[in-house]
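Example for tutorial group B:
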């Protein structure tokens, strides 16, 4: 009936000539129904939700775009009270997906970076790093273990770095650990030096972690922040094969040496 009505209507002179076999050409009407499954069923770009290509390597990177790199490490069963994935010294918490810890960062194709992975395992930790050149390929692992530029890096997540710090003298503060108001948009987190061996240290604002700057009295780092907001501040430092870690929840106010 639909086909018959269509043919009669289109045959009128106000329409351009049509084909009597139009419906058959379109695949409609030969079985009494329409095309029920040959069309596009919501395909196309799904925003990157498909699982990434599995990699045989334990530790490396994936190309996401010419400006985005994804660093990964396979999960080897650690207790993982915490983990960090780093690009050129910028360390952020990795997300456990499909048996891997992953984190994406801003990057520039063709540039060489130092990548690191750190994870807690009971009272100890596992740490590995290497130097890689960011190329357009999946499962990139070629590089030099233990190398890498320990610079500032770029972040494709949250937080912000406002320089290396150095304005606070922790020795003038009663508290071992706290923050100083540098401006209404800049907070400086500090921790006094308590004699650790400190082959590495990190100061974090809401899990956005960067190496602290060592001063005579301690470690400091500045971050972008909003006055009146609540933040979690964290300090981690290596000490003879183990680590010291402390954290607090603070409200960013106009004060110095706040705990």
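The residue assignment follows.
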């Amino acid at each position: 009936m639909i086909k018959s009505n269509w043919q009669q209507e289109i045959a009128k002179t106000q329409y351009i000539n049509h084909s009597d076999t139009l419906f058959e050409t379109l695949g409609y009407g030969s079985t009494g129904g329409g095309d029920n499954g040959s069309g596009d069923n919501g395909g196309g770009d799904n925003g990157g939700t498909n699982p990434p290509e599995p990699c045989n390597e334990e530790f490396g990177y994936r190309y996401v775009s010419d400006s985005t790199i994804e660093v990964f490490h396979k999960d080897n069963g650690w207790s993982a009270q915490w983990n960090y994935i780093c690009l050129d010294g910028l360390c952020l918490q990795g997300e456990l997906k499909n048996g891997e810890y992953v984190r994406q960062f801003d990057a520039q194709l063709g540039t060489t970076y130092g990548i690191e992975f750190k994870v807690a395992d009971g009272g100890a930790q596992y740490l590995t790093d290497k130097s890689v050149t960011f190329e357009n390929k999946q499962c990139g692992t070629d590089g030099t273990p233990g190398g890498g530029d320990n610079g500032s890096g770029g972040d494709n997540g949250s937080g912000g770095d406002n320089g290396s710090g150095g304005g606070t003298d922790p020795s003038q503060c009663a508290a071992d650990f706290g923050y100083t108001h540098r401006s209404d948009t800049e907070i400086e987190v500090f921790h006094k030096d308590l004699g650790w061996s400190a082959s590495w240290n990190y100061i974090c604002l809401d899990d956005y972690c960067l190496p602290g700057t060592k001063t005579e009295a301690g470690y400091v780092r500045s971050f972008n922040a909003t006055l009146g907001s609540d933040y979690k501040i964290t300090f981690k430092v290596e000490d003879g094969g183990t680590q010291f870690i402390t954290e607090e929840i603070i409200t960013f106010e106009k004060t110095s040496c706040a705990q």
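Confidence is low (pLDDT under 50) at residues 30-49, 146-159. Compare this with the pattern of hydrophobic and polar residues in the output above.
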